[in-house]
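PT: before anyone asks, these are the final sequences, not the draft ones from last week. 269 residues across everything. Please model them as a single complex and drop the result in this thread when it's through.
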Amino acid sequence: MPELPEVEITRRGIAGIAGARIIGVRQGLPLRWPLGVEPQALTGRTVRSVGRRGKYLLLHLDEGLLLLHLGMSGSLRLLGNAPPPGKHEHFELHTSAGTLRLHDARRFGAVVYAPALDAPPATQLLDKLGPEPLDDVFDARSFHHALQKHRAPIKQVLLAGRAVVGVGNIYACEALFAAGIHPATPAARISAARAARLHAAIRQVLQSAIQQGGSTLRDFVSAQGEAGHFQLHAAVYGRAGQPCPRCARAIAVLRQGQRSTYYCPGCQH
DNA sequence: CTATGGACCTGAATGC
DNA sequence: TGCATTCAGGTCCATA
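LR: through. Structure below.
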């Protein structure tokens, strides 16, 4: 579920865990990767701060850090008084500020310990990630330069996370619509002017989604349990056959790398 | 190096 | 009601 806006909403929702002491860890069924440390070794450590890099949440501890990824179906809750865990709740951090609980039916998500940001496995997970779309270092010129390196369709280049991170299937479709770019266009054939429009569209779409609390297609909820509602304002995603909000032509679907791409044949070239 | 298809896993929706 | 098929927010890995 989670793309950058959902992960950022989650980060803000659990930021209050900073300063809390870890009391214990409970693991359910295996997630994508093993934790990489004995759970009891975390007991007694303190959470210093909660950061984000791309779609990873970073729980910085007084010693080491936890990297959390929500995969396709994950969500995190911060619970003051936690009821017994359900069948899909596969990781829990009990702390003095409440229980941080991961719900992830498909288990594509992960919780991984690293001794430091510049040590494995953090380096393996984070080092190849592209620039943060909402940072100032992500500028139109360098984005256009990055696109020149890829002959693949722009939609798939956005999802690959090298030219920019955090853009998943929903927001790639929405940003390409906002920029008027056909999703099958080879990335390297996008002009500087159109790359600048796409750069602005990515930032605008992500920021708007954060303001809407993210998108809830099936089961995303914030750390406080609230659904997002960006999906109600999506122009193209999930709207095959419905009229384009700009030109009223029917929204079309395309299959790219086993993912559905929604776009308007009238507005995107 | 880039590009592509398969893999991981469960549940909901659809069609017969 | 049951059963098979398709699809869903991601991304790593093997193969060309």
